[in-house]
Amino acid sequence: MGDKRIPQIPLPTLKRLPVYYQYLTRQARKGVTDISCASIAKAMGLVAVQVRKDLQLTGAVGRPKTGYRLKELLEALERTLGYDNKTEMFLVGVGSLGKALLHYRRFGDYNIGIAAAFDVSEDVIGTEIDGKPVLPFRKFPSLCRRLHVKFGIICVPAEAAQEVANIMVSSGIEAIWNFAPITLELPDMVIVHNENLTASLSILLKKYKTQHTGSERE
Amino acid sequence: MGDKRIPQIPLPTLKRLPVYYQYLTRQARKGVTDISCASIAKAMGLVAVQVRKDLQLTGAVGRPKTGYRLKELLEALERTLGYDNKTEMFLVGVGSLGKALLHYRRFGDYNIGIAAAFDVSEDVIGTEIDGKPVLPFRKFPSLCRRLHVKFGIICVPAEAAQEVANIMVSSGIEAIWNFAPITLELPDMVIVHNENLTASLSILLKKYKTQHTGSERE
DNA sequence: TAGATTGTTAATCGATTAACAATC
DNA sequence: TAGATTGTTAATCGATTAACAATC
Lengths: 218, 218
Hints:
homodimer; alpha/beta; Rossmann fold; seven-stranded mixed β-sheet; two-stranded antiparallel ribbon; 8 helices; globular; DNA-binding
């Protein structure tokens, strides 16, 4: 009652796990079969203890002297991150960013797919992007319910984002990847993850300025 | 000596500041002139003390009872985040993501611009995207030095990213926004900010799965 | 003056790091 | 056995939150 479900995995760890996964798949492709925390940490610019603690949360077990079986480790990460089940998403807003995401092939490696895209502009409706149909947005609710899609991607301008989000949620969407630079107001059960490119770029900018002007005062 | 320059602003705060800024510019456009931490916090899903502490780091001062002058607050944020000086960037890799970034107009609001784009493919070289020329990558070093560009954006495939980064750095680039899903190995003075879309999507996926299967065990 | 809100110091919380034991 | 590496408990560090004083 009033259960604010706390994720077992702390957010900082959760942010690192997919990056480990990406690195480890690359190592696996190179033929590596066993790997130690120290070598993962080195490649990632972290310390070994942190990697070990993080991996512990996936349930993976390593062996003294040789480290982790890479295959087991990848499986543990796949289970933890949910790559072991297919995830279908609907994307709304086929502007340049929406198109870029529709073209992005890498999601498939994680068992994630964009099933269809939606827009209100006649210019894009009816087209196909990388094999995915672009449909009129008014068809979103019925299709969403019919196909039981739970994940939505918002790539519309900021002004339209809240309205699109509302329609998504009333259509059964339970998790939203939001590229519009606004804070969506939605029921608590809906999971929102914001991707704010400008905000992210600002961080780089500030880090640079800090380093290059940081010593004039103190 | 051995000065590992510590940023005055803690990273969690630095991540929130641009989001405040975006919200505040929208409020300013609506005609709001004074604003309290409480109202900012509410719109952002945070608590007022946190907002106040964050804003303190920008040097902005508020007044009891009425809060902050919105105009002053925006100026303080602009100074803190470096929006008050023009920043020019070079982008490498004109695939779908690179194109999306070239089309993205919002950067201009922050005094950030992409001066030119580079690629090795004849298909895109010589074209213009949103007024920005796409040039052969071999011209990167000379142009970069000539124009004193310090910011680079990497939108090439993972396999090519390290090499592109190396060339960037040897051409005078000092800060890199990296969209390739690998950890770049570069000199310490170079600032790297990774934008890992797949990793980010994984976080949403995991949060969803945690909430929707989290109660079966405990 | 009373009330709202900022500014600031102290307490809490959680993640990272250090230290060390266990084990192949 | 010696050495490398995992696993785990304790110490540290830093950010968030709470409490309260200052002020318009």
